[in-house]
Design goal:
This protein is an alpha/beta fold. 37% of the residues lie in helices and 18% in strands. The longest helix is centred in the last third of the chain and has 34 residues.
Length: 273
């Protein structure tokens, strides 16, 4: 992943990079020492060659039922974010949210997140439609309509999503769309790619960047102007291809070494005769 990250940054020189959460495997269970190790490993694997912003995912702090103020605050402090943030970069407005705080059960964490979103919504100018970034996708029944080689496997596409675990609830999704009026949405979480239409608002679910989660990881290169956007999908080398290349290279090395040894043996044997 680190090499792919470096190559992608060198090739594209992006103005900004967004990580859509789950940057740690087990951040939700990590003690302070383990957490600091995870942070250092993340910074080593993804050096900040370009300005970047990190969103919080369930693997970072836990699902709603596991999330607490201590886990959240240390993650927020580390990456300089809050439950919801508004960023204006190059004339483009981005809004990031904590998906696990969209439970709608009246807990203190959820109330604070909802208060932040209401404040952001009221601060948006007339016709200022932001880019909404979040970890969970907005509500959808399943990935049945999703297409592409990196979409969910066919045998899993009709499995219904569990609201608040696999996606946001319908109520929270409608509230976000009405409050923020985004022009496009980007999400992660499912590990698979999907383009979904929410009554005129397109959501792009970004697939995993890790070989651990899929054989053909990828990332999105997005070009945004004040009125338009274009999304390009960039694939990393397939893990299976890399393994085959390494295996073939190792076999060639072994065979070449054996051949050289055999030739040396033959040469010495002939001289002795």
């Amino acid at each position: 992943m680190s090499m792919s990250w470096l190559v992608a940054n060198t090739l594209h020189s992006p103005d900004v990079v967004f990580f859509l959460g789950d940057i740690f495997d087990e951040g939700k269970w990590a003690n302070q020492k383990q957490y600091e190790h995870y942070v250092e490993r993340f910074k080593q694997m993804f050096p900040a060659n370009s300005p970047h912003h990190v969103l919080v995912g369930n693997h970072d702090v836990g699902f709603h039922y596991m999330m607490d103020g201590i886990k959240l605050n240390r993650f927020y402090k580390t990456f300089n974010l809050s439950s919801s943030d508004v960023l204006r970069l190059g004339g483009i407005t981005f809004v990031t949210i904590n998906s696990m705080a969209m439970e709608g059960d009246g807990c203190s964490i959820c109330k604070e997140a909802e208060k932040r979103i209401n404040s952001i919504a009221s601060s948006l100018k007339d016709n200022e439609k932001p880019i909404l970034l979040q970890h969970f996708p907005l509500f959808r029944k399943s990935d049945a309509v999703c297409e592409g080689e990196d979409s969910m496997p066919d045998e899993e596409k009709h499995t219904e999503f569990r609201p608040k675990l696999d996606c946001l609830s319908r109520t929270s999704s409608i509230w976000l769309l009405k409050s923020l009026k985004p022009r496009v949405v980007f999400s992660g979480h499912t590990h698979h790619s999907c383009v979904y239409n929410h009554s005129g608002v397109t959501e792009f679910s970004v697939p995993s960047f890790s070989w651990r989660n899929r054989n053909n990881p990828s990332y999105f290169l997005v070009t945004i102007s004040p009125d338009e956007h274009a999304v390009f999908k960039c694939f990393m080398p397939q893990e299976s291809t890399v393994i085959r290349v390494y295996t073939i290279s190792l076999l060639v090395f072994i065979l070449t070494s054996l051949l050289l040894c055999y030739r040396r043996y033959r040469t010495r044997h002939i001289k002795m005769l």
